[in-house]
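Re-run with default settings, no changes from the original entry. Doing this only to confirm the output is reproducible before filing.
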Amino acid sequence: MPVKHDMDSTTGVKLLRLFLRLMADRNRHFQADLAIWLNCSKQTIIRLMRVIESVVGDRLNMGMEDRRRWYQLCPDSRMPLGLDCEELRFLHICRDMACSYLPTQVQRRVDDSLFRLAMQLADTSAMQTGGEQTARFAFFSKGRIDYTPHFEHLDLLLRAREEGRVCRIRYKAAGRREEKEHRFVVGRMLCMNGAIYALGSDLEDDELTVRRIVSLAVHRIQEVSLTDHFSTVAVPEPSPGMFGLPWHEPRHFRIRFAPGRAADYVRERIWADEQRLEDLPDGGVLLEITTCSEPELLAWVRSFGDSAELLAGALPAGECSSDRHDGEAL
């Protein structure tokens, strides 16, 4: 029996190392170079390649170049989940975009999952960095909220929505000293201005009758507990294309922006699905917009100072727009 080149390395270890190298680098690997790298004979490389070929089939290519034998692993371009390397990069971009909202625990799990997918796809760029890729997008925010300490509340709110359970929430609204308890049915989790909100139905004490529709800022929730009561209450579906969080029936507004930076800023963006922009002769712009959140719209207009003017519009009669019902929108 020939003497082993590497007495401390088993056949299984060599096989695993060889397979990982083939996956990490899709170029041709010459038999002689692999033998030196694994500290084994060329015959051992042949035997290991036969084992790999029995598993991966025709994905293992081999041939001769200048009398030198080479091997090359060509993984499937798509994996059973229907993903390819390009789509994996899109998932990385989605992770980057959502990063400011994700608690640290979730970020780690997402990164681990993306790395495992990269391993299955043999995505070299991800594997060589151990999954710790440089973010393709960086988002700068003013006053970012750290949702790491609120992870448990987020998890319970999502469970309540999935199971249709009524949950009890201790909540401290902005500007309030005392907490308030809500019997709450979660309809949808919303993200706006760097914050996460739970939109749903606030119930009466009987946990059956809807008192009103509210949105609660997750970072102001003090405690969440799931009850054994299940609810079939229909929560109005919010429209992400509407300006701001929903508070009342749709209302129409007209805002004039002075020429200059304010007009350019407004002109370059989409503010709502139902909007119309009109360029004015002086270089300004007129924005006509429909929203269910008058308080947010008014605050937004005020943020432009003298560069924005709210014009009289046909506003439907209804509830007082300042009645916020302890909701958190601004």
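Residues 104-121 form the longest helix (18 residues). The chain has four domains: 11-73, 78-140, 148-230, 251-311.
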